[in-house]
Amino acid sequence: MRMRKYLIALLAGVLLAACAEKAPEKGALILGKATGFNPQDTVVASLFKVSDGNGKSVARDTLQDGRFSFRLDSLDVESDHYTILFRRHKGGRMIPMTSASGPEIYLEPGALVRIKSEGRYYLNARIDSPVRDQKLRERFMRKVSREDLKALRDIIADQQQFLDETEERNDWTREQVDSLRAVDKEYKDAAHAITDRILKQELELLQTEEIGAYALGELWTLAAYSSFNGIKEYREPVLRAYERLSDEQKVTRRGMEILNFLNPVEKTKVGSPAPDDALVDPQGKTVRISDFRGKWVLLDFWGKNCKNCSRAIPELGAVSRDFRETLAVVSISVDRESVWKRASAEHGIFWNDWNDPKGTSGSIRSYGTNGLPTFVLISPEGIIERILVGYQEGVLRSAAALSAQ
Question: Are the beta carbons of 347 and 331 closer than 8 angstroms?
Answer without folding.
Answer: no
